[in-house]
Amino acid sequence: MAIKKIAVLTAGGDAPGMNAAIRSVVRYATSHKLEVMGALRGWWGLINEEIKPLDRRSVSNIINSGGTILKTARCPEFHTEEGQRRASVTLKKYSIDGLVVIGGNGTFEAAHIFSNKYKVPCVGIAASIDNDVNGIDDTIGADTAINTALYAIDNIRDTATSMERIFVVEVMGRESGYIALQVALAGGCEEVIIPELKSNLEDVCHEIVEGNLRGKISWIVVVAEGAGKAVDIAKKITEITSLETRAVIVGHIQRGGRPTAFSRNLALRFGQAAVDCLLKGEFYKAVGLAGGKIVAVDFATAIKKKEIKTESLYNLIKVLT
Ligand code: F6P
């Protein structure tokens, strides 16, 4: 049966570029004569029937803004039978026969269970600053978050050098060290601590002391949030080295702001690909970029733990220090 009416939602943590993805879904779908509705606050919108029609004008002037005009939320209720049942009732009530969900692996996990149980044609669009969707090299928002964290690190370097201090900078990424590795390399940072690689803080301190003896006056240690807390690590470094250390948490600043051209263009291409998947009957997949191409990965694969290659980047960071 041909799809006539779709709903789009954004779920989980927002990522810069989600608005560009909504714009692309709405405009590409309407250009194929599909009706489009937007569910508000992710899965909550389907559960509570907070849903509104979207047309080409509803998505004007959002291509350059961070966040999501559909709002987003974490939704524990969608993990319950009752939550899913209510969401399916809303879809039936509005005669929605296709669903596009924009989010990360948590969103795809929920979509995988729901769409299989209620036989809802569903396609995902990979959007997460963490870039931790398995089978996908690049998600919407990761590039913007990296550039935001890099801006912070560049500023920190000015004061670190001027005041001859050590800085420990904590970046986001949940269980992934992807953002940390990327910014540590691009920011010329001396050390990076990520969950994927075992780090020994005593060894890090030893290097700092040795460097200090050689006249190296400032250090930036990047820590991925999944590997430790900047405040604790800074305290430990001061205890061991007796050198003045400051902690900075870049935090949610990384989640907002104008999406970079890379994040926007991924979003626009993913939106088109997701609608094409629905039109072609390719359901239960997440659209992303892999090997430089737009791909659609089964939800079952996308929600597995993603292994990122860390060693070569880590070694390069160390060699260039
Ligand atoms: O998944 C995106 C992310 O920003 C993670 O990097 C971080 O761990 C988490 O969301 C923070 O979630 P919240 O904003 O709900 O505290």
Provide the gyration radius in Å. Answer: 22 Å
N/C terminus separation: 59 Å
- At CATH level 3, the topology of the largest domain is Rossmann fold
- Written as H for each helix and E for each strand, in order along the chain, the element string is EHEHEHEHEHEHEHEHEHEEHH
The SS-based structural class is alpha/beta
Question: What CATH architecture of the largest domain do you see?
Answer: 3-Layer(aba) Sandwich
Characterization of the model:
42% of the residues lie in helices and 18% in strands. The protein is elongated. The longest helix is centred in the middle third of the chain and has 22 residues, at 142-163. Helix 1 packs parallel to helix 9 (261-280), helix 5 packs across helix 6 (178-186) and helix 6 (178-186) runs parallel beside helix 11. Strands 3-2-1-4-5-10-11 form a seven-stranded mixed sheet, sandwiched between helices. The protein has helices at 18-31, 43-47, 81-93, 105-117, 142-163, 178-186, 201-213, 230-241, 261-280, 299-302, 311-320; strands at residues 5-10, 35-39, 51-54, 98-103, 122-126, 166-171, 191-193, 219-224, 245-249, 285-290, 293-298. The mean pLDDT is 97. It folds into two domains: 5-141 and 259-302, Rossmann fold, CATH 3.40.50.450; 143-255, Phosphofructokinase domain (Rossmann fold). The chain is α/β, with parallel strands linked by helices and 321 residues long. Helix 7 links the parallel strand 7 (191-193) and strand 8. It has eleven helices and eleven strands. The chain binds 6-O-phosphono-beta-D-fructofuranose (F6P). 6-O-phosphono-beta-D-fructofuranose (F6P) is lined by residues 13, 74, 104, 128-130, 172-174, 225, 255.
